[in-house]
C-alpha cells in the first residue's frame, strides 16, 4: 500500500486524497443538542464525521447518536421519492410517484377540504426536526387554519408555561456564576450531553449540587444531596422546602415585599407541608428535605436547572413546576448573576443568543382572533391564552366528536404518533381523516397511515439557521446533495405555499401559480428555493446585526456581532411581564379560571390522578408506578431505533426495575415480563438496576414492538397544559418467561 492509499484509508483530507471537510450540524437531538459536525466528504459521499472543535455547544465532541450520523443519512430505509398509498391505511403499501403528482395531490386535497369545510378543517403538525416550524406555522395561518400544532404539545412548553405563570418569562440557570445548582428532575448527561462538560466544570469549581429525581441518574451520582421522591410529588416537596425557608427566615423579604403577589396565601399553603407529612407523601427523609432547603437558601447565588418534561409530565404537572420555580423568587435568586436569568429568545426558542429576530411576526401573519378557535381552545383555555399553537393532545377527541367543528385533513412533518398517550387510539382517529400527508426521512409507522408521503432531507443535505446561548450563530449549507429526490422541509413548505397560490410576499414573491419565482433547479431536479429561503431569513434577522451574507462567510459559524448585553434585575425598571407586573405566587391568569378543578391560583399540590394515594382501589390491582419516557443516551424518541450502532446499546425493549421490587415479583434479570394497565399490556424484558426508583417501572417509550405509551388513557392529561401524565400512572408486572440465557443479576 503506497502513501496515497494509506492517506485515503486514514481519511486524511487534502487535494491529493480528494477528501474535503465540510461543516454542518447534527439535529437528531433538537433543539438543545445541535452539535457542530465536520463531515469528511469524498466523491460526494460522507465517509467520516467528527464534532466541530469551534462549535461552542459540543467543542469537538459527539454523542452516540451524532457518531452514528452516517448510518442515519445513508440508511437503506431512507425515502428517496414521493409515495402514494395504494393499500389500506397502516399497511405501508405505497407506490412511487413524481413530485409534481405528489404536490398536486396535496394542494388539490387541501383546497378541496378548504372549500367544503373551511381551512380550519386541516391540521398542520411539526414534530422533528424543529427548524421548519416558523415556516410551517406561516403556511398554516396563510392557508387560514388556526390548527398549527407541534411535538411541543407534549414537550417543554408546559414547563415554560409554569415559569411564565409565576414570572411572565422563562429564566435559565447561570451555571458559570452560581454556587449551588438545584437540578430538578433533569438528566442532562443523557438528554443534553453538551451540558455535561459545563456541569463537570462547575463541580470542579466547588459548586454544590442538589438533585431531585426518583432515579439515581448520572448527575445524581455526583450530587451533594439527592432527593429520591415518589414520581409526581414534586409540588409537595417544593412547598415543604419553601416552608423551611420561610419559617427559618431565609427568604428574601425585600423581593417578596416589593415584587411579589400572593405571598400570604403561598406562605399559608407552604405551612401545610411540614417535614414529617411531606416525608410520608414523597418518600424523601425529613432531614434530607430540610438540609436541601437550607443549602439552597443559604448558598448565594443559587440557580435552578429545570428539565423540559419530567415535572410537567404529570396530571398535576404545571402546579408542581410552579411550586418548584417559586423557590427562585422566594430566595431572591431571580435575575441576578449566578441565579436564574431571563434572556430573550433569538431563533427557534433559543434564549441568550444575543440578538433579536422577527420570528414571531414571520410565524404569525394572521391574528388568532381572525380565525376559528384552535384545537383544544375550550378544553385548555390557559394553554390557548399563553401558547401560539393548538394543543395536539386534543386531536383524537375533536376528530371523534367533530366539536367545535370537523377536522378532515392533516399535513404532518416528522410526526410520531407514539408521543401521544393511547397512541393506537390517536392513529385510529387519524385514519378517519379524509386526507393525510406525512413528510419524513423514513416510511415510519405513522407515515404508513398517510395518503401521500414526501421524502425529507437530513440536516447535512439542507441549509438551516441555528444559534446558541454562547452568542454564536451558524447558517449551514448542504455538504452533500439530497439523496434521491429528497427535499428540505422548508423547500417543501415553500413549494406548497406556491402550489396553493397563497399571497405571501416572502415565500411566494412571484405571486400565485405553481411555477414559483424562477430561481432555477437543484441537481436532483427540485426547484431551487435557496434565495427565497435566504431572503426570508434576512427579513427575520433584520432587527439584529446578523446577516445571511456574513453568515455565509463562516461555514462553521461565527460569534454574534454586537451581542445584546446581559442585564440583571430588569424587573426594577420594567416590572414583570405578568398581569400584575410582579412575580406571582398566586397567578392572575389561573385566578380567572376560578372554579375549574386544578386551576388554583396558588401552586396547590394534588396527587397524580392515578396513584397509590388517590386511587387505592386501582392500586390494589395495579400496585406499581408506571414512569414512561426516561431518556436513554442513544435514543431520542424513536429516531435512532433503526441504526445498528445505537440500537445495539439496548437491542430489546426493556423495563427498568429496582432489584428489591423485582425480587418481590419473582423476576430476574432478562426475564420476559408483562407490563399491564387497565388500558392494555405489553411484553418486554426486565432490566434490574439500582438506578430505578423502588416500586416504580421505568421504561423508554416508542419501541414499535412494545409501545409503553399505548398503556395510558388518551385523556390522562394535565388540565392546565394538556400534557400527558407519562411519569406517574399505575401498572402491574408479572413474569411471563425466564431469561433466555444467564445474565448478571443487577446492572449498576
Q: Could you explain the architecture of this structure?
A:
With 748 residues, the chain is an alpha/beta fold. It folds into 4 domains: 3-73, Single Sheet (N-terminal domain of TfIIb); 83-155 and 349-559, Rossmann fold (3-Layer(aba) Sandwich); 168-342 and 574-591, 3-Layer(aba) Sandwich (Dimethylsulfoxide Reductase, domain 2), CATH 3.40.228; 616-737, Beta Barrel (Barwin-like endoglucanases), CATH 2.40.40.20. The protein has 26 helices and 27 strands. The strands form 7 sheets. It has a 7-stranded mixed beta sheet, covered by helices on one side. Strands 22-26-23-25-24-27 form a 6-stranded mixed barrel. α18 links the parallel β15 and β16. α9 (234-247) packs across α13 and α17 crosses α18. The longest helix is centred in the N-terminal third of the chain and has 19 residues, at 99-117. It is globular and about 70 Å long. 56% of the residues are buried.
Amino acid at each position: 500500500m503506497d502513501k496515497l492509499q494509506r492517506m485515503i484509508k486514514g481519511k486524511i483530507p487534502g487535494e491529493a486524497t480528494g477528501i474535503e471537510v465540510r461543516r454542518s450540524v447534527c439535529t437528531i437531538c433538537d433543539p438543545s443538542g445541535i452539535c457542530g459536525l465536520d463531515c469528511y466528504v469524498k466523491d460526494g459521499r460522507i465517509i467520516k464525521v467528527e464534532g466541530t472543535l469551534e462549535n461552542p455547544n459540543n467543542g469537538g465532541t459527539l454523542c452516540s447518536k451524532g457518531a452514528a450520523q452516517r448510518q442515519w443519512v445513508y440508511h437503506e430505509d431512507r425515502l428517496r421519492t414521493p409515495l402514494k398509498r395504494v393499500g389500506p391505511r397502516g399497511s405501508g403499501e405505497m407506490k412511487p410517484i413524481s413530485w409534481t403528482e405528489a404536490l398536486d395531490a396535496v394542494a388539490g386535497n387541501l383546497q378541496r377540504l378548504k372549500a367544503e369545510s373551511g381551512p380550519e378543517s386541516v391540521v398542520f403538525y411539526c414534530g422533528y426536526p424543529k427548524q421548519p416550524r416558523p415556516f410551517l406555522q406561516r403556511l398554516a395561518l396563510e392557508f387560514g387554519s388556526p390548527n398549527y400544532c407541534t411535538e411541543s404539545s407534549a414537550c417543554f412548553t408546559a414547563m415554560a408555561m409554569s415559569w411564565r405563570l409565576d414570572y411572565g418569562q422563562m429564566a435559565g440557570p447561570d451555571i458559570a456564576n452560581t454556587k449551588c445548582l438545584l437540578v430538578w428532575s433533569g438528566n442532562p448527561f443523557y438528554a443534553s450531553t453538551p451540558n455535561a462538560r459545563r456541569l463537570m466544570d462547575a463541580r470542579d469549581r466547588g459548586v454544590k449540587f442538589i438533585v431531585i429525581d426518583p432515579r439515581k441518574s448520572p448527575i445524581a451520582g455526583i450530587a451533594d444531596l439527592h432527593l429520591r421522591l415518589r414520581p409526581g410529588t414534586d409540588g409537595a416537596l417544593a412547598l415543604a422546602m419553601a416552608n423551611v425557608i420561610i419559617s427559618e427566615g431565609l427568604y428574601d423579604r425585600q423581593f417578596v415585599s416589593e415584587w411579589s403577589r400572593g405571598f400570604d396565601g403561598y406562605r399559608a399553603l407552604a405551612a401545610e407541608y411540614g417535614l414529617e407529612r411531606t416525608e410520608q407523601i414523597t418518600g424523601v427523609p425529613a432531614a434530607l428535605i430540610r438540609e436541601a432547603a437550607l443549602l439552597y437558601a443559604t448558598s448565594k447565588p443559587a440557580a435552578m436547572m429545570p428539565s423540559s418534561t419530567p415535572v410537567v409530565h404529570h396530571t398535576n404537572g404545571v402546579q408542581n413546576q410552579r411550586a418548584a420555580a417559586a423557590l427562585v423568587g422566594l430566595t431572591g435568586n431571580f435575575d441576578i448573576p449566578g441565579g436564574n436569568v431571563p434572556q430573550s429568545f433569538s431563533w427557534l426558542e433559543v434564549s441568550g443568543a444575543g440578538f433579536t429576530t422577527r420570528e414571531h411576526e414571520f410565524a404569525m401573519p394572521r391574528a388568532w382572533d381572525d380565525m376559528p378557535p384552535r384545537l383544544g381552545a375550550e378544553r385548555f383555555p390557559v394553554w390557548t391564552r399563553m401558547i401560539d399553537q393548538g394543543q395536539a393532545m386534543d386531536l383524537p377527541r375533536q376528530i371523534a366528536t367533530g366539536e367545535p367543528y370537523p377536522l378532515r385533513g392533516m399535513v404532518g412533518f416528522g410526526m410520531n404518533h407514539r408521543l401521544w398517550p393511547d397512541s393506537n387510539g390517536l392513529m385510529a382517529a387519524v385514519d378517519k381523516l379524509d386526507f393525510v400527508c406525512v413528510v419524513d426521512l423514513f416510511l415510519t409507522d405513522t407515515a404508513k397511515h398517510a395518503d401521500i408521503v414526501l421524502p425529507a432531507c437530513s440536516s447535512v443535505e439542507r441549509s438551516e439557521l441555528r444559534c446558541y446561548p454562547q452568542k454564536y450563530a451558524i447558517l449551514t449549507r448542504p455538504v452533500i446533495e439530497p439523496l434521491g429526490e429528497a427535499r428540505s422541509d422548508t423547500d417543501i413548505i415553500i413549494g406548497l405555499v406556491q402550489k396553493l397560490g397563497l399571497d405571501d410576499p416572502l415565500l411566494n414573491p412571484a405571486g400565485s401559480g405553481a411555477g414559483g419565482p424562477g430561481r432555477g433547479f437543484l441537481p436532483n431536479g427540485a426547484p431551487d428555493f435557496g434565495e427565497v429561503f435566504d431572503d426570508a431569513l434576512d427579513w427575520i434577522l433584520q432587527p439584529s446585526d446578523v446577516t445571511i451574507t456574513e453568515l455565509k462567510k463562516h461555514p462553521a459559524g461565527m460569534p454574534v456581532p454586537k451581542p445584546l448585553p446581559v442585564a440583571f434585575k430588569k424587573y426594577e425598571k420594567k416590572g414583570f411581564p405578568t398581569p400584575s407586573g410582579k412575580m406571582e405566587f398566586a397567578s392572575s391568569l389561573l385566578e380567572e379560571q376560578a372554579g375549574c378543578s386544578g386551576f388554583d391560583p396558588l401552586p396547590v399540590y394534588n396527587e397524580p390522578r392515578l396513584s397509590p394515594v388517590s386511587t387505592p382501589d386501582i392500586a390494589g390491582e395495579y400496585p406499581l408506578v408506571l414512569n414512561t419516557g426516561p431518556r436513554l443516551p442513544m435514543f431520542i424518541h424513536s429516531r435512532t431505533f433503526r441504526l445498528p450502532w445505537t440500537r445495539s446499546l439496548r437491542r430489546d425493549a426493556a423495563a427498568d426495575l429496582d432489584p428489591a421490587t423485582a425480587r418481590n415479583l419473582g423476576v430476574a434479570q432478562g426475564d420476559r415480563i408483562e407490563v399491564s394497565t387497565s388500558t392494555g399490556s405489553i411484553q418486554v424484558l426486565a432490566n434490574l438496576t439500582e438506578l430505578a426508583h423502588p416500586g416504580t417501572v421505568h421504561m423508554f417509550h416508542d419501541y414499535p414492538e412494545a409501545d409503553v405509551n399505548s398503556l395510558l388513557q388518551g385523556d390522562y392529561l394535565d388540565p392546565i397544559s394538556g400534557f400527558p401524565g407519562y411519569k406517574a400512572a399505575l401498572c402491574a408486572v408479572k413474569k411471563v418467561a425466564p431469561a433466555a440465557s444467564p445474565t448478571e443479576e443487577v446492572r449498576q
